[in-house]
Specification:
heterodimer; A: alpha+beta; four-stranded parallel sheet; 14 helices; 17 strands; B: alpha+beta; 7 strands
């Protein structure tokens, strides 16, 4: 904290829960929502994030209502406006360090006290940003961007980040995908973990164009051609005009009952579904889906419009298996949506899921682009299925390591 | 203790200010907004800002004013030789003992005390530490033409500070005024409009 700081405002109200309010002494366009600031209390320095900016002139309301430019020379009017019409900022604070601690040794602690009124507010310096996130030169840290006001690097400790679940939340156009791309680049460049990217909108694997500026954004495959293996969902799928390294087709035998039950909402499954699927697994084993979908839905009451042999019909199977016929027929109808997905095949040419697993186990990085398959059903089915397989493989590796501790290598691919 | 030009003698005073009249040779020297000083006692100097200049009438003036034709010599004689009803009103804005204070002096200067127009150096010394004497002017705004007095004083003090190498003084002064008059749109705009009228070059100094 030895830096000579320039105050940009002072605390004038608010609280920790409802956010603090600061009257700013700078023009409204000189600071952005999302800026990091430091509140200089007497005992603590509080890190805070600007969450909102507003015009809130505190003096005579006529300063806001009547432009001074109509009465004063423009330069003087702007100068006075800058003092009289100060914007206010809402500040969210949740971390603090002891005031006067210039050593950067102490970690920021949760802020549980309130900065005093009139405490100066300053833009965070490079040292503050480094203390909050990480130092750009620290092993495992990766610069994900720069503060808009002063251009200080924001470095994230990726080693810590991958120990937890992380989500990027924000409105459309706020840069979630770009941040994901930058984080993934860091993980790959620093080789901290094998990564599997579900590229739902086909924007990460290959070069993309920024929606706002039209600038070319290099894809992961362009940046790391050797480290990345690209998968495309379904045979013949092209991703932004590129043929992926591998094709992912899902064999029906790979789909377990639990994968289908996870799609209960999407497929509008009923409470009777588990009963029917249990009977299917009992009857057909791991090929339950293929065999069930091979059945036909026809009348067994002799309806002349359906020429289906009773033994090939869903109803006949249901009757034989002592399952409610209507429930079985309803499930069969709903599972037709799975059948129509042309990346779900009876027998895939290659075991794409195993290829993905093997690549990850070798420490390689994988992107799976969904191509033209963009429905929630596609996303849920494929991601759930792969996640389950990864989890099973990881569990196997971990159990093997536990059983042969010292003789086998700890699983390190996740 | 003071080095300014003597412009007159005190004729009346109270805690908030004083009134003086000029000598024949200094009638044209005092201006609205000027900083003047008067000794109050040993090692005690009072400062004030000229807020009004009056020419009061008497019977002779009234009689001459009603005449159809008056010789120029008569006019000049009454304006300069008699100067019968000339009074200059001063509002006290501070005093100096061992240091400068922006507050009313402990007592007013005595009658017939010499009134001096402060030199540029004195203006700098008085106005440089802070702008806190503005409050005494603003507190008297109901009794004086505050916009023009304040603006005239700012122009003159700015000239002194420019000569002393501190052209940025005026920005601090206007900034302090904004702080003081944040709740008074008419008051602030009135002063600044007057400032721009008296010295149009000053607004040019306010660049973002």
């Amino acid at each position: 904290m030895a830096t000579l700081r320039t105050s940009i405002g002072k605390i004038t109200g608010g609280g920790i829960k409802q956010h603090l309010r600061a009257d700013l002494e700078i023009a409204p366009e000189e600071i952005d929502v999302g800026a990091y600031v430091l509140i200089l209390g007497e005992r603590w320095h509080y890190y805070a994030l600007v969450t909102d900016l507003a015009h809130h002139p505190g003096g005579d309301p006529r300063f806001a209502a009547r432009p001074l430019q109509q009465r004063l020379p423009a330069g003087l009017a702007r100068w006075v406006n800058r003092m009289a019409l100060k914007p206010t900022a809402q500040l969210m604070t949740n971390l603090c360090v002891p005031a006067g601690d210039g050593t950067a040794a102490s970690k920021p602690a949760p802020a549980t006290s309130l900065p005093p009124l009139h405490a100066p507010v300053c833009l965070a310096e490079a040292e503050d940003i480094a203390r909050l996130f990480g130092r750009p030169d620290q092993p495992g840290c990766w610069v994900v961007g720069y503060t808009r006001e002063q251009g200080h690097p924001v470095a994230v400790d990726l080693r810590k980040m991958i120990q937890r679940s992380v989500g990027f939340f924000g409105a459309t156009g706020t840069g979630k995908s770009m941040l994901a791309r930058v984080i993934l680049s860091g993980l790959i460049r620093l080789d901290l973990a094998a990564t599997l990217t579900f590229d739902l909108h086909n924007e990460l694997a290959y070069d993309d164009t920024a929606t706002d500026s039209g600038a070319l954004i290099p894809g992961l495959k362009s940046i790391f051609p050797q480290q990345i293996r690209t998968f495309g969902l379904g045979r013949g799928t092209l991703i932004r005009g590129h043929r992926p390294d591998c094709v992912l087709e899902i064999g029906m035998a790979d789909i377990q009952v639990s994968d289908i039950l996870l799609l209960a909402d999407e497929l509008n499954l009923t409470d009777a579904t588990p009963t029917v699927t249990s009977a299917l697994v009992r009857a057909f084993g791991r090929n339950w889906l293929r065999e069930f979908l091979r059945l036909s839905r026809g009348s067994q009451s002799g309806d002349s419009s359906e020429k289906v042999k009773p033994a090939e019909s869903v109803a006949a199977w249901a009757k034989n298996a002592s399952v409610n016929v209507l429930s079985a027929e309803a499930l069969w109808s709903k599972l037709q949506r799975i059948k129509r997905l042309n990346y779900v095949v009876e027998q895939p040419e290659q075991d794409g899921i195993q290829q993905i697993l093997s690549a990850l186990q070798r420490g390689e990085h994988v992107t799976l682009s969904f191509g033209r398959f963009e429905t929630d059903l596609d996303f849920l089915l494929v991601t759930n299925l792969i996640a389950r397989r990864i989890s099973q493989a990881w569990q196997q590796d971990a159990e093997h390591y536990a059983a042969h501790r010292g003789m086998s290598r700890a699983p390190s691919w996740s | 203790m003071t080095s300014g030009v003597i412009v007159g003698r005190l004729v009346q005073s109270n805690a908030r200010g004083f009134r003086f009249t000029c000598t024949q040779s200094t009638i044209f020297l005092p201006r609205m907004g000027d900083l003047v000083s008067a000794e109050i006692g040993p090692a005690l100097l009072g400062y004030g800002i000229i807020t009004d200049i009056l020419w009061l009438s008497d019977d002779l003036i009234a009689q001459l004013a009603r005449a159809e034709n008056i010789e120029r010599g008569v006019v000049t004689d009454n304006q300069f030789q008699r100067a019968a009803g000339q009074y200059i009103e001063v509002l006290s804005v501070g005093y100096r003992d061992t240091s400068i204070h922006h507050a009313l002096p402990p007592r007013p200067p005595l009658s017939l005390e010499q009134i001096r127009l402060c030199s540029a150096q004195e203006v700098i010394e008085f106005s440089d530490p802070a702008y806190t004497y503005f409050r005494l002017l603003l507190e008297a705004q109901d009794d004086i033409p505050i916009n023009d007095v304040m603006a005239a004083h700012l122009v003159q003090a700015h000239a002194a500070h420019c000569a002393g190498g501190s052209p940025a003084w005026i920005q601090g002064a206007v900034g302090h005024l904004v702080e003081l008059l944040l709740d008074d749109y008419a008051g602030l705009t009135g002063v600044l409009e007057a400032l721009a009228q008296i010295d149009p070059s000053i607004p040019q100094l306010f660049k973002e």
